[in-house]
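Run log // design_07
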């Protein structure tokens, strides 16, 4: 049982057959926002990411690049680390499946499965897709291809099998007892109906290539890349040593975030492997949707792959983070469009959020001698706005509990809208002449509301939020969620503030 305040979140480990693209960036960004939110909310967080380096697909890519697999994976894995830096990700660990700690853990996990009688030696004869690294039954093929459209090849070889068929009833009982094991709900239903349809034993070793972890006691076989890869979630906690601090604190994982393409591996095979090895399954698997590019499926052959480096270079990091996490309800498919990105940058970030900050901070700079004003006698309008700001933490927390990242952002932007309306109604620039005391109260109320907003946007747009909190004079140690709400730590009257600077520039279309 993991510790009650612990929170363990993982990205899939990415294949190093190619450079990172928008899909990888998306999953990682979502996990990063989730991890940052949980940290600010006082949880003990472990955020894991890494690279999946074995298997035929990677071996083929290495060969195509004219390199040895190890040198090739060293090189490409480094690009994924680079992605983490580029996107300001905050992983606590980065695992590579070619590391010794992982190899040792996978072999121990295999032994455990053997001891449990879950693995037997047989012979596989059937279809395999190298691109998907997946076995397909004849009945699943569509026009001679995998249901994903990937080519398949006929494979016949000696193979160890995992007795997946024996797990059907136990998996169904597990899903029934944990109705939020898979989110969104539609994906849960998909998993349950797949398992109800019956399970066949799963081939878990290969003999026709060498780039993998040798099966203990039978080195002609390498462990099937998915059994190898899934195990990363526990080898990164020090498995097979289940008594160590990390493992005891963080297993079972709170959340595996994945794309919908790899749901079956995470929601069917993985819990079955774990239960067979006497370990607890993770608490949740969240499957997000897929991005298309201006309406088209993203693929290398179409040449429309979106490079996260270009994206960040062109639009900015916080802008990219915000767009990806806000534009599409997390869990649904999304279409990447330049126009939609520009609308989010100009409308949401520059006009709504940026403008609110700029208005409030420049009024304070100009009319309160650059110091946080002192409120005197809040009226009901002020209290109403503050009540909305205070309610944001429970609202965003509830949304984040279901990984509804877009809903958390919507809630925050609703309050940004309310605060902008409040500025218009209160017209502090008029009050400056008619009632300066009232002006100071209004500006304090706005600054305190902005503090709530900026604190809560940290997980999503960390850089801009930090700049805004600097401008509000909020010290770094007062930026977590414990500082929010009616019993929190309000902005302090008299605090000298730095000169205001815009946080979100508008996008200017260059002809
Ligand atoms: O599947 N839109 O690795 P992978 C959104 N190594 N997300 C996308 C996407 C798109 N167009 N394309 C890819 C693997 N993704 C395995 C995982 S885990 C034990 C092993 C995302 O490099 C999505 O999250 O193919 C998907 O799950 C992940 O990239 C797959 O990355």
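design_07 sequence
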């Amino acid at each position: 049982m993991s510790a009650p305040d612990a929170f363990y979140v993982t990205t899939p480990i990415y294949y190093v057959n190619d450079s990172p693209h928008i899909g990888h960036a998306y999953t990682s960004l979502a996990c990063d926002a989730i991890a940052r939110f949980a940290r600010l909310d006082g949880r003990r967080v472990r955020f894991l990411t890494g690279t999946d380096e074995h298997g035929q697909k990677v071996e083929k890519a290495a060969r195509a690049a004219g390199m040895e697999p190890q040198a090739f994976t060293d090189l490409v894995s480094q690009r994924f680390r680079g992605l983490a830096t580029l996107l300001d990700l905050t992983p606590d660990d980065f695992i590579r499946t070619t590391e010794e700690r992982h190899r040792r853990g996978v072999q121990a996990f295999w032994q455990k499965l053997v001891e449990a009688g879950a693995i037997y030696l047989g012979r596989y004869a059937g279809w395999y897709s190298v691109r998907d690294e997946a076995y397909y039954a004849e009945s699943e093929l569509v026009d001679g291809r995998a249901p994903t459209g990937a080519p398949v090849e006929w494979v016949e070889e000696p193979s160890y099998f995992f007795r997946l068929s024996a797990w059907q009833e136990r998996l169904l009982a597990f899903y029934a007892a944990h109705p939020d094991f898979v989110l969104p709900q539609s994906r849960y239903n998909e998993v349950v109906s797949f398992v109800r349809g019956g399970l066949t034993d799963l081939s878990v070793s290969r003999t026709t290539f060498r780039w993998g972890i040798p099966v203990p006691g039978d080195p002609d076989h390498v462990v099937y890349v998915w059994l190898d890869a899934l195990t990363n979630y526990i080898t990164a906690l020090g498995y097979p040593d289940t008594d160590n601090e990390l493992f005891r604190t963080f297993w079972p994982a709170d959340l595996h975030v994945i794309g919908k393409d790899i749901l079956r591996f995470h929601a069917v095979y993985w819990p079955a492997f774990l239960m067979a090895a006497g370990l607890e399954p993770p608490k949740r698997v969240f499957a997000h949707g897929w991005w298309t590019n201006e309406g088209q499926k993203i693929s290398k052959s179409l040449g429309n792959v979106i490079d996260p480096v270009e994206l960040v270079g062109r639009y900015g990091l916080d802008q990219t983070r915000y767009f990806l996490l806000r534009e599409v309800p997390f869990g649904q498919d999304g279409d990447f469009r330049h126009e939609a990105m520009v609308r989010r940058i100009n409308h949401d970030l520059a006009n709504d959020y940026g403008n609110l900050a700029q208005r409030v901070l420049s009024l304070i700079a100009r009319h309160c001698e650059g110091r946080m004003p002192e409120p005197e006698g809040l009226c009901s309008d002020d209290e109403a706005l503050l009540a909305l700001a205070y309610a944001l933490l429970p609202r965003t927390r509830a949304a984040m509990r279901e990984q509804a990242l877009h809903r958390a952002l919507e809630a925050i932007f609703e309050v940004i809208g309310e605060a902008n309306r409040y500025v218009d109604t209160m017209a502090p620039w008029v009050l400056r002449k008619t009632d300066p005391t009232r002006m100071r109260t209004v500006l304090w109320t706005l600054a305190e509301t902005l503090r709530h907003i900026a604190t809560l946007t940290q997980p999503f747009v960390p850089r801009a939020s930090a700049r805004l909190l600097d401008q509000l004079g909020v010290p770094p140690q007062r930026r977590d969620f414990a500082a929010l709400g009616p019993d929190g730590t309000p902005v302090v009257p008299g605090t000298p503030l730095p000169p205001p600077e815009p946080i979100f520039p508008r996008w200017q279309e260059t002809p």
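The mean pLDDT is 97.
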